[in-house]
Design brief:
Helix content is about 70%, strand content about 0%. By secondary structure, it is an all-alpha fold.
């Protein structure tokens, strides 16, 4: 799996875990963020790339810091 795909998959899994922890559905989060629920599904499944603004916006609605979702240098080393 290419590095970008692995990163998107990991970030997506973390976003999904945070959403589920809050008891939100994909539709709930999509409404808060102002996107279609399919966009959230694609993010969580690693099938959609995102820009930093969108990541920060989604994280804000999940009450989580973006760096917690992205991970740090130790996690980056695992993706390579």
């Amino acid at each position: 799996m290419a590095l970008e795909a692995r990163v998107l998959t990991e970030v997506g899994l973390r976003l999904k875990a945070e959403r589920e922890y809050l008891g939100l559905t994909q539709a709930d989060l999509a409404k808060r963020v102002g996107v279609d629920p399919s966009y959230i599904a694609h993010l969580e499944n690693g099938r959609k790339s995102f820009n930093l603004d969108m990541l920060v916006h989604v994280c804000w609605h999940l009450d989580v810091e973006p760096q917690e979702v992205i991970g740090g240098p130790k996690e980056w080393a695992l993706w390579m």
